[in-house]
Amino acid sequence: MVDAITTGLEYVDGQLVGVRDRMESAKAGGEGRGEALKAMFKHHKKDSEEEEKEKEREREKGSMKSGVSQSQFKVVADKRQS
Residue 80: enclosing H or E segment and its boundaries? Predict the structure, then answer.
């Protein structure tokens, strides 16, 4: 449980560092903070949509592969025949 919380907090820390860096670059470039945040969230949403599309393609590809069954069943009356 402790490891899960630590990992989660490390992830959040990484995200906050990214936001801080983006704010600093926006400040240095003359871009407004609000505009920088909007661009960052727009980019994040775009990435999430692309990842979701890729996952869907993989699921479709996987379902096509598993369309042919390789299972074999044998019904026997006696255990010695199995």
Answer: none
Amino acid at 31: E
φ, ψ of residue 62 to 5 degrees: the values are: -65, -40
d(CA 49, CA 77): 55
Helices 33-65, 2-29: axis angle to 10 degrees equals 130
Q: Please identify which residue in the block is written with the tokens 């996952």.
A: 55
Alpha helix segments (H runs only) across 1-82: 2-29, 33-65
Q: How confident is the model at residue 69 (pLDDT cuts 50, 70, 90)?
A: low
CB 37 within 8 A of CB 27: no
Q: Is the Cα dihedral 31, 29, 13, 52 positive or negative?
A: positive
pLDDT in tens, 37-57: 787 777 767 777 777 788 887
